[in-house]
Every structure is written in C-alpha cells, then in structure tokens.
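Request: Give me one sample?
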Amino acid sequence: MEYLVLARKWRPQVFEDVVGQDHVVKTLKNAVKLDRVAHAYIFSGPRGTGKTSVARILAKSLNCEKGPTEKPCNQCVNCMEITGGTSLDVREIDGASNRGIDEIRELRENIKFSPVSSRYKIYIIDEVHMLTTPAFNALLKTLEEPPPHVVFVFATTEIYKVPATILSRCQHFDFKRISVGQIADNLGHIAKEEGISISDVGLSWIARGGEGSLRDAQSIFDQVISYAGTDIKDGDVEDLLDLADRRLIFELSGAVLEGDAGKCLKIIDEAYYSGVDIKHFYQMFLGHFMNLLTVKITDGDGVLGDIPDHEIADLKKLAGGASKDTIQRILDILMAEEDDIRRSTEPRINLEYAVIRMAYLEPLIPVDEIISRMEGLEKRLGGGERRDIPETQQIRPDQEAVAAESDQAGVDERTEGDDLWQGLKSFIEGKNRLLSSKISRGEFLSYEGGCLKVGFPGDYVFLDDIKSAPQMNLLTQMAAEFLGKSITIDIKLLGGDTRNSNGMVPNAAGTTNNIKNEALRHPLVQKIMDVFEGAEIVNVRINGSRR
C-alpha cells in the first residue's frame, strides 16, 4: 500500500473531526438536520483551515445512503466514492485550471441532467476567485435559479476577488485561522495514534510553524518525522525549523534591557553569519517587544493565545526586569526605524545602530516608585507619618525670628498642631478651592488653648484679603467644621511686614539671591539629591516669580 502523508491520512471525514471551525460545523449540521440546505455556499479563509474538507463532508452528508444525515456513515458506496474522489455526482473543479467561460458553459449544460446514483449533484469549485469575469457572469443565472438537485460549494482564499453579484447568491462562511493550541492537540493525537514520541514543546513549535493552517502543520510534522524518526527530541525540531532565530531574539532583547550594547552587537553578528535574514529578523524583534509590552500590561492572560505557555513564562520573566515605559520607548525606536530597515541595502547597520540607541536609553523611574521614595524620605526627615509639603514652602533668612516668635510648646504638641494645620488645608481644598489657594502659603506656628496661630510672609499678595473679616469668618467656620469644635485662628506675620508704603519689597534682588542660596543648602534638597542618583538642580524659582 502506498504511503499517505499525514495531511491526507488524517483528513476530517465527519463534521466532528473538523478543528477550529465550530461556527461553520454547527450551522451546516443543523441545515442538514432541518432540511434547510442552500443551493450555493462559499467558504473563505486562509489555506489549510478545512474549506475543501468541509465541502466533502457536506457532500457525504447529503448523498449518504443513510441520509441526508449530519453524520455520514463513511461505509456506503456513495460515501466511499466521495472520499476517494471517484463519485460521478460530486465533482471537484480547480478554479485556477478551469477558469474560462467555456468550462463554465460546459458545467451549465451538465447540471441539467439528474444525478447518476445520488440525491444531489454537487459541484465543489476550489479557488473560485481565479475565474474570469465572463465565467462569473455565466454562473450568475445558474446560481439565481439552479435545478433542485444541484448544490454549489465554492472555496477561496481571496474572498475580496469574488464579485458581489456572486456573493449575494451564496451563503458565506468565513473560516478562521486555527489556534496553536488546537493544532498542537491535533498533532498530539496523531503522534499517539502513529506511535511517535515528541514533547509538548516540540508540538507547539510545529504548530506555530503552521501559522494557523492545520494542513501546513501536519506537513511540517511529516517532515520532522522523516528527519528524526519516531523518537523526536526538541533539538531535532529546533534544527529542522531553524528556531535559532527565536533564541537569538530572546538573547538580543535581554541584552538591550540590560543596557549591554557590546553584547547586542555580538548577538547580531552571530545572527548574520548563521544566515538569518536581517529584515525578517527585525520584524520578529519588533513583534517580540510588542509581546513583551502585552505581557507587561495584561500579564499574558488569554491575550497571547498563539504563544505556548512556556514561552509566555519566558516573556514574563524577561519583562519583569523592565518598566512599561522602557519597553514602550524601545518599541517607539523599532517602529520609527522599520521603514528604513525595509528599504535599506545594509539592514545590518540599521539594526546595529537601533539596538545601540535602545541599549543606551536612560532608565525612567516610574511615578509610583518616585512617590514611594518621597514618602520614605519624608518619614526619615520628619520622623513620623507622611505630610504633604506645602508647594510654596521656602527657606528665608528671617526663620530664626519666626522661631523666636513661635509658641514654646513641646515637640509632641507642635507635631500634633502641624498635622492639624495640614489636615485643615486638605479639608478646605475639598470644600473651597479659592480659599485653599489663598491659605496655601500659611505656615503653622503653634496650637494652644483652642487658638491656632498661622504665619504668612509680610509681602504675601493675599495677606490683607485673608485678614479681612469675611475671610476670617469663613476660615474659622471651616476650621470648626473640620475639628467638630469652636476654634480661633490668629494670623501672624513671618518676620514682620517688609513692604513699603507703595506695597513693594525693598532690595528684592538681594533677598531673592539669599533665598535661592538658602534653598540649595536646605537638608531636604540635599537628601533628595542623595536618594535620586544623578539628579541635577536646573533652576530655583521663587513662587510668583518668572525668573
């Protein structure tokens, strides 16, 4: 007996054998069962997804001696003839070879005659999009009013080339690409029945090689068996499918994320001299980083369905050491260089330059990490819980005068009062944004005997407004609401009012320079410089100043 390749030997013979096309199978089975079979169908989709196989199964369902039935027996003469391709009533026509008007005219003459030994005459035209325009036109009248004993089944990989006039006369079924998992399961079943030993990893590699086509994957499996025999090792599959590309992709991405430009160039050199197509390698590299970003965002849950679990685990491990922002910046570079790589006569140079740029990217610190560091810094400096530092807090030469004027309460009482002031400001911010902005410069002085003393700079623009009766009443009412008890608020000047009769501050330039120098020497600033390595002070700006 002659050898049958796996794709022919394991071709589906009943609807239940069809892989990955449940929506098509269910509809056709119900159509046969309910006697609602259309006179013309068109199956579209990628190669190797089961279009012609389903057409044959439909033909057997309609012409089976025990039918019509949604499950043909595959034992009667009609079923066996259809399986063997010898049935006089089921004709398979290659649209690429019989694409002219003469062939279609001959078909139109033949359909007038009744079936020889079956219920229906069934015409399966593969790659129907290859028919010429006159041939399509010749089909139109037949498809509009076919004889009751004729069923057409068209198959195509390029549905957009089929005229709309033909599509409107057919029931259209769109066949999907088959997932890697479904293909791997099918190959595993074949391996078990054929007595072949192969790992799940090897099966997943072969399944991915099929690129959504079960027939292509079965052909690759056949080739692997011929190469390695019945005991297939992962290395055999890797050698035959030349999976070194994927290994190099992972190594190169790891070197980029480590910032090791030298290692990147060595990996590209290895890829180049192993015969890798650099342009194709670049596309794989781009897709790999898109997978890394997907894993980083979604943790890989159900999104990367065509990637086996072991590879998703590797992606998670690799992505774990990089921030989402870093991966996005790398993707920006890869996508920006994609067109140049495609058109370049020296794509290796383009790739090397791109990975060097990526490897030398300055790391970005995520915002949540910055906040975490700042909270830790404040706790170390303040010795207590985190308190929001007023945006306008500054260091002034007159702080010693403020300290002398402040109440001499103990450290615990002062800390409690400061927390009260910060909490009150947050409370007012949620109630009255205008008042909140006016008191933002206020600094806690003391809290004793139900009296909260708050200091403002003498040159503060809103000072007079805050001290006015309406604003003081509003501030006192909100403070009472916040504390749940009555309270008085006493506004003090920090170091006295330095404004002259014109409302201007004398010697403003000198005072500004002193303030800037004091700010640079402030312990908080120095501590921040220690925490954030490589940080630089670009400018010191006084609130309200444009300098």
Remarks:
- The CA atoms of residues 50 and 272 lie 38 Å apart.
